[in-house]
TrEMBL record:
Domain (Stomatal closure-related actin-binding protein Ig): residue spans on this chain: 282-378
Domain of life: Eukaryota
GO molecular function: actin binding
Species, as recorded: Sphenostylis stenocarpa
InterPro entries per record: SCAB, SCAB-ABD, SCAB-Ig, SCAB-PH, SCAB_CC
Location of the Stomatal closure-related actin-binding protein actin-binding domain: 55-97
Gene Ontology biological-process annotations: actin filament organization; regulation of stomatal movement
Official protein name in the record: Stomatal closure-related actin-binding protein 2
Stomatal closure-related actin-binding protein PH domain boundaries: 381-488
Sequence ranges assigned to domain Stomatal closure-related actin-binding protein coiled-coil in this UniProt record: 101-268
Amino acid sequence: MTKISPEVEIRMPMEAFPPVSADVSFIYDSFPKYKLGADNQILEEPVEDNQGPSLKDVIEQEASNLSDQHKRISVRDLASKFDKNLAAAAKLSNEAKLREVASLEGHVLLKKLRDALESLRGRFAGINKEDVEKAISMVEALAVKLTQNEGELIQEKFEVKKLVNFLKQASEDAKKLVNQEKSFACAEIESARSVVLRIGEALDEQEKASQASKPQDVDGLIEEVQEARRIKLLHQPSKVMAMEYELRALRDQIREKSIFSIKLQKELTMNKRDEENKSRLYMLHGSEALGSYLRVQPCSDEVPHVSKCSFQWYRLSSEGSWREVISGAVKSIYAPDPSDVGRILQVDIVSSGKKLTLTTNPIQPVSGLGSHVESLLRKSNTDFNVVISQMNGKDHSSHSTHSFNVGRMRIKLCRGWITKAREIYSPSMQLCGVRSDVSNAAKALFWQARKGLSFVLTFESERDRNIAIVVARKYALDCNVVLAGPDDLV
């Protein structure tokens, strides 16, 4: 980018001003002799016995170079050329206006001449009349030619106007660029001046300290200056890296503090809820983890029995900002579903016209469940032994063992060669933990194969039930189908 300054006198490239580190601590009273080679490499000259130029002379030379840099070329010449072209375009526009006026006067004169010739044609006869008619035709030809010239003049006027507008816009842009570059250059010059002032102050302090100190080793000064210039040329990467390390450490500390704060908030919330539950007439019994079930129990014999109460279970977000109704969970028992992990559960109890609410802590996952699910997902299908407890909402009479096969594309329920249901994953399919008060609720799940065909299946263990739900949902998600319970938000 071209830099500008208020005074434009001398052209000087950017490389004429060698960069000087602003934070160099000068502990010697003179600079060594050196010069810059290709790629800004420092070439040392043989050290002579006599002392080199003083540090003050070098600073004066740096200040002189800075003054020369202040007088660099700018874009003002470009703006001046735009102004000259704009003046020339305006001159062309004025000439076009004059030609337009002259053309209008020519039309008037030709019309008058033609009228005069028409009046003379009626008065003459013979050869004189033919001469008048020739004169009239010549006048008409001149009028046509004048009209053509007017068209060309209009086109030329349009082009000149377009050029004037373009040059005006270019001139305004050039002026804006001049002002912008001027501000940038002034800021850079002020920054360089502050650097020189700091160097001058360092020089004064060095002169005072040198009076009482011994002459220092010149080789040490050379190494220090070379290191300072190298740091300046490389934009001081050591400082940047140190700042990055500090920022990284601060981020780690903030992350640890945030995790600790969230943990404390959760503990406070859990303690608060425990205190609230202690003052309730009812309490939740059971482990608040996947693979178990929660049961509402009265705290004393004086409160109504749970059989005389109505219930509704809810699923809350981890922050407790909103809650979702768990459709069908209207009993005193509820077995958490894999989708409840990390969520808070609530149950509303209505007894004798009064409404009470019990709240759990976030549901904890089962250790080792995720790794086992990942190993099963590598297979094409997985079989589970189940017993049909209900079919289409009615108790099933047979308690024989069936095979519940969860595949990548479909789910099949069969006993030997007899297939009870075989359906591919579809939006009408539903799969979740059982939400009724059946026995072994933590081992049972609800499966709606399609509309009009549903089952309540009891597995051999709570672990098999949860694994079957998680594996089926992952396979269904690969088929762009979300498996959930009735009326669940998906």
